[in-house]
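Why predict the complex rather than its parts? Because the way molecules touch one another can change local conformation, and only a joint prediction can capture that. The input here totals 1063 residues.
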Amino acid sequence: MKCPRLLSELLSAGLLSGVLFSGPGCSGSIVADESKSNTGGGPNPGDPDIAPPEVPDEKTACSGSSTVSQGRWRRLTADQYSNAVRDLLGQTTSIAGFLPDSRTARFKTNAAFPVEEVDVGTYASKAESAAKLAVGNLKTLLGGCDTAGTGGEDRCATQFIKDFGERAYRHPLSTDESAALMKVYNMGKAESFSVGIKLVVEAALQAPRFLYMVESGMDDDNGLRKLDGFEVASRLSFLLTGTMPDADLFAAARNGVLDTADGVATHARKMVDSPKFTGEVSRFHIELIGVDALADTTAVTKSTTKYPDFNDGMRTAMADEMRKFVSYVMEEGSGSVEELMSANYVFPSGPLAKVYGAGAVAGADGRAIIEDGTRKGLLTLAGTQAVHPMLPTPRGAVNRGHMVRRDFLCNVVPPPDVRVEFTLPPNAEMMTAQELLRAHMDNPTCKACHSLMDSIGFGFENYDPLGAYRTQDAGGNEIDATGEIVGIADEGVFNNAGEMVDKLAASPELRECMSTQWFRFAFGRDPEEADACTQAKMISKLKEGQGNIRDAVLSLVQSDAFRFKGGL
Amino acid sequence: MSFSSISRRKLLAAIAAGGGVSRLAPFLPRAVHAASVPKRILTVFSPMGYLEPSFWPTGTGTNYTLGETMTALQPWKSKLLYLDGLAMYGAQWFFDNPDNEHASGGNMVFTGSKMNPLAGGPSIEQAVADFQYAQAKTAFRSLALGVNSGTPSQHTAIFYSKAQTPVTAQTNAQTTFNQLFANFTGPTAPPSTGTGGSGGTLPKPPVDTSASDRLQRQKQSVVDLVKDELARVRKLAGTEDRERMDAHLEGINSLENRIKLLAMNTPPINSVPTTPSAPSGPIATPGSAGAGCAKPNLTGSGLTGSIHSQMDLITAAFACDMTRHISLQLGICDGGIDAIDGVGQHDTTHAYGDTKAAPPHVENHKRYDRWYADRWAYLLGKMDAIKEGNGTLLDNTLIVFGSDTTTNHSAFGLGPHNHIRFPLWMAGGGNFAFKTGQAIQLPHSATDPGSPALVARWVTHQRLLTSIGQAFGMNIDTFGSNDPGKGPVTQLTRV
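Output of the joint prediction:
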């Protein structure tokens, strides 16, 4: 598992970094090594492991005192914002694609980088539209408060600010916060009561307490800051349901139930059984694999002449299928990592019927069981194969192998040296993947990394760029899907994707990686040493039996990392 | 031409008639008598440069001939400016970069700053924005647009608002359109009969000024609340979150500025504003800008169409003086723009080396370069079609094109990608920046500037970034966190 060192490490891989790992020939080797030594500079040759940092076992990791990294406030993602406005005001605000979300590794988290100037303006106009719509049904908005009589309007406004304000800020309002909203109300009231209420809604939706998960916590004996019940409630609801807390959770926060790990667990157990949790597990896998990029017609492209079926309908169908697949596993199946990795069914609706072929016959639940072993879990779904590679290249095997390494084993594979020269053979399209990529194995520098990726990618050769099963490649050659996967417990050769997936699904390395990915998804940061205990506990759950996702997430929400934050 | 013409006065009426805060987004500064024309900057990133022998012009000075892949730019030859012989200093492989030269070059090209782990300073259009916006507040300080530019990470970030803080480019042109042009109702009128939009007597639509004052006060009260709340949570924030709250506050200040600008522009337009609440700084006075202001009609789809849509938006945003600072990021450090069916751009560039210059690869690379030239021609054509004062919008906009690496001959034994004879080239800005229509040969060494001794033989790209800053009036001698020298490019002629 060694690669030549030309860089220390990549930051979170960008959305498109897969295109890097593409050099097929390496026939020219890396040039200019001589001039490097002449100038006396240059990177230190060294061979860092591509494996992720090791996490000690639970007993060791959890023996010391509690430590937690600081972490950062997350700004609601476009989806979370949309959901929160929906729940807060009972209305659907369509904001698809309105703001770009920043990512932690593969996941949309908005945990880093500031909001853009233009986007602050968009928050303002969205808030105004939502507020305008909300006061269209003032009575409902006010929860039936009777405005009749002297002072009735102000009384209702005060009540509204207290109730609505607490839900919008996801925290009880301080005196100052109430007063600020009251001031806005009074400004609007000069025109009319309705305008006053509208302005309150408009302002609250732009306040940082609505747009960010503001977390302060309280000093704790152990030097950490303990999140209060409301802060825990927000973390729980956004992680498990993708939206703001509901009335039940707010009540729990108010009553102090969420101040203990047991109390958190009680509520979380109810939440992970809701369809909203299934939705978040789907989002996790869609973003992990990058299927969300299908919606961007410039990010994922195919040759239009060779794949005319790859249109908007197909793009949508592929993402929908992954949602259906994950939902089925979570709600009808075992809800486990193993089933996600190795289920023998697909959902061949709409344009996907053509991709999956006549052998895929859907039952009443939309599910087609594939008996011949040609489909096995998430990795062999059409959408997964269609987004890797994202851009047309004759060397999909490299990208697919890299995807497995990066996303499912959490390996950090460095990009190739920029000085690599290679010549793509003129007949590249007609060659088998093995022929095309053989040059990687002839060159020690290329081989160091490519042997880790290419030989995994060969296992996926049976899937064309749309994910359809094939026995001949584009050049008309019989497919050879044998390969080898190394660096995992069950390493070794395999004959096809199914056998490879079995090895992956059984490997502890994959379960460990899923714990890292869930950590990133939940906190918007990479796990650090201080998080070892949190991670170790999650890993224990994921390694138990088939690796139950609900159990792992329940362990996560009871952890110190979830309930505390580091000092300022 | 996908623009619909609309007179400036109609635009103002449309803005005034629009509802809600979104109507505040499209604004035109209040009519002023022709004064200074805005100085604008557009930085454009595309991955991996060009195949050099066919990119660089031949000849020197004004007597030059465009490179064979760039002939689409012929109509604007007098508005182009080439500096042949620049070295992008600091991104080379012999520096201890945490990533290879794709990312190190991408981070450095417009910032002049080393990547560690992200770029150590702002990109030039953001530095200019800081400088100019402090003097004249347009509706938006700056815009960051992209096509398939990913989300910010070491390998994707090109443009920075400050050290370690990349901008997040908006890749959805429709969203930017809404941010800028919502409720913009046109076209309804023949082109303005006014002289370059420089004032004149405008009709006075019936407007209830007391209502508009009231609306402004209401908007202001919302803005005040958000400011108060930002200040409150800021006290609870860690260092990084504090910076994010500060950036959010800047966004709110910009929104507040738009509200005030709108109030000052509310008809009757030529009267003294009835609401004397001036913005916190001076407001922009665009002079003759505005006549070409029109709502763009975004119809493009696919890669080429998306790029053209962003270019339409850029032209409109400049013409309406909504901002004077825009970055456009096409793709990421080593790709993302696979425009030609079956020919990967990254493959194409790496396939070239002096011993491996197989004709198909050279031809493929040239096809890419010509494809880019066509995109640049589209942009220049749009901008040059808009008359402004004595010239065109292009003459008042300096466009700086750059890449993460270049793809050149292997004369230096550096492989396909390196950073010497670097194609950081320019178009436009002839009214205020540099004398255009030139190919300037810079003296340079035959050796890569790999050491302090050798770098003296090269003109580094920080010199050009410094020149650009100076052209906007900035009092700077260096640019970026890694500048090995001092002063501007002496071979450039200022206008």
